[in-house]
Predict the 3D structure of the following.
Amino acid sequence: MTSVRRSHDHDGGGPHPPRLRPPAHRVSPRAIAHWAIEYLLLWGLGFGLALGVAAWIGDSGWSALPGWVSGRIGWLPYIVGGAGLLMVTVAPIWRYRVHRWEVSADVVYTRTGWFSREWLLVPVSRIQTVDTEQGWIERMLGLATIEVNTASHTGSSEVSGLPVDVATRLADDLAHRAHDLRDDAT
């Protein structure tokens, strides 16, 4: 199990950070809708809470806050709403462009991240379990998530946004290959 993290910091080991090619497969384009709905629900809740806090503080005359904050508390729902709108419209597309996966003969290879990228290589021989999950939004969109688990938490991997048939076939294939490799090792 190898986790390769690439950041913009140099560790003095050379002029360039290690380069890995992107994994071969993108997740389903329907994952954009899945993530947008999740963000909409989360940020909608945040907006409702911000609206309630602004109304409560504005009407109560609560004096525990500095005057410059309580005088501008009405901006809070607009700030949260603007951030939420940005997250709902930009983040799912950005996430789709970055999240990729691939399964080769001996490794499960994923790339995730937003501002910093994480490449995760999980050897098939180290796989202990492969789980398929489907939340209600994923069921609605015909998507699923597979979790590839090893004995080490850092070696475990997850691929979300896969079509159900791909996730089911992939989980079954990985479970059989991991089992066959363990049987060959004994």
Q: What stands out?
A: The first strand starts at residue 2 and ends at 6. The helical segments are 30-60, 67-70, 76-98, 136-141, 164-185. The longest helix spans residues 30-60.
